[in-house]
Amino acid sequence: MSITKGLYEKRANLKWQMENAMKEYVDKNVDIPDEKMSEFNKWNAEFDKLTEQIKTLEAADAKLASITESIGKGKETVSKAERDIQEMKDFEDCVRFGFKNLSQERQAEIRANQFYVAGGSKGGYTIPTLVGDKIAAAQKYVGGMVEPGLCRWFNSSTGATINFAKVDDTAQNAYVIAEKTAQTTSSVDMTFTQATLTFYKITSGLVKVGSELLQDSAFDFAGWLTEMLFKRMYRGLNYYFTRGTGNAMPYGLEAISYKGEDAAIRTLARSDIVNLLYSVNKAYQTNGAFMFNNVVCRDLRLLYITNTDFPLWQIAMKDGEPDKLEGKPFYINDDCRSPHPTYRSVFFGDFQQYYIGECQPMKIIRVDELYADTDEVGFVVHGRWAANLVAADYPIKHIRHVKT
């Protein structure tokens, strides 16, 4: 029995004893003698003393529990930090030395941590979650369609083709009917279509690394390799998400956007930008953004509103806020085309309606034997992605250059 519980029981017994002793005088309706009152005072003092002892012990128990919890959290944090370090060490060893070249003990340890993914006679190494910051940095570096947060990304565990239902009901409105009118009215049923997302295997292409670099333990080889390959990978993804035709490749921005404005063959005017913006349904203007390449960006910055010195370009008035074009954010995508006959140079709309599916896990393959004659090792990243517009009412439109 705990000390606190014993004190509670002792106090309860004392209270019961005081109540029984008091009851005798209350039932007879007589005064309590002085000598008995003195005994009652001693019991009352003892009761107060027990109460204070209980409070002290309970406060100590609470403090001890808090300290124990903090220690537990500290151990958990340390343990996670240690696991993170070990995970990166496993990844570094796999890409630097090759899984099959590690000792049997190290191989068993890595397999137990479910880190290694077999890839036939070659080694495939899943990308640790700790390099997520490098992935985000690579996406930010490339920008455009792979800009973090611009389009809607999702993960698929199987890579099977996905069909999203889509419907354009913007032409239909609610309307008034008289009382007791039959439920069958002249309303038009919704027509559903599907947006198909098919996954395609995409590769960074092979990179050859000399054995001297692999043997340099002072060099963060795994960090350098992943950063370089991720940038290469996302440059390729951005190209397909921009120019992909949907034929044996993902649907890109050029293929899924709709004409919002025709412009001169090789130039842009402010009217083209404004007409494009207002060609998009109001529902998609609110979160809308522009996208164009760096050449178009330069040309737009030179445009001014007619008869004024006020530019279309609004420079941000606060630190951390982006510049805007006609009050809307913009993204630079160098896979977009420059003004040229029949080309589409400027896009505007809600890019959250463009879905990008990623089939995990993305992995690095190490190729040992193929380049042994030159004492080099090959590395390549493979992954599977799908992309398409999941909307039926043209949330993204473009400027096409066709006017003479």
Secondary structure: elements and pairs:
Layout: H1 3-28, H2 34-97, H3 104-112, E1 116-119, E2 122-126, H4 132-142, E3 152-156, E4 162-167, E5 192-197, E6 200-203, E7 207-210, H5 211-215, H6 221-243, H7 253-256, E8 258-264, H8 270-279, H9 282-285, E9 289-292, H10 294-301, E10 313-314, E11 324-325, E12 330-332, E13 344-349, E14 354-367, E15 376-389, E16 396-403
Parallel strand pairs: 3-14, 8-16, 9-12
Antiparallel strand pairs: 1-2, 2-14, 4-5, 6-15, 7-15, 9-13, 10-11, 13-16, 14-15
Helix pairs in contact: 1-2, 4-6
Structural class: alpha+beta
Corresponding CATH architecture of the largest domain: 2-Layer Sandwich
From the spread of the alpha carbons, the general shape counts as: extended
Q: What letter string, H or E per element, gives the SSE order?
A: HHHEEHEEEEEHHHEHHEHEEEEEEE
Q: Main β-sheet: number of strands, strand sense, barrel status?
A: 7 strands, mixed
So what's the oligomer here?
single chain
Provide the β-strand percentage band.
15-25%
Helix % is 40-55%
Domain unit count: 2
Indicate the CATH topology of the largest domain.
Answer: Major capsid protein gp5 fold
Helical segment count? 10
CATH top level of the largest domain?
Alpha Beta
Low-confidence stretches: none
Note the gap between the termini.
96 Å
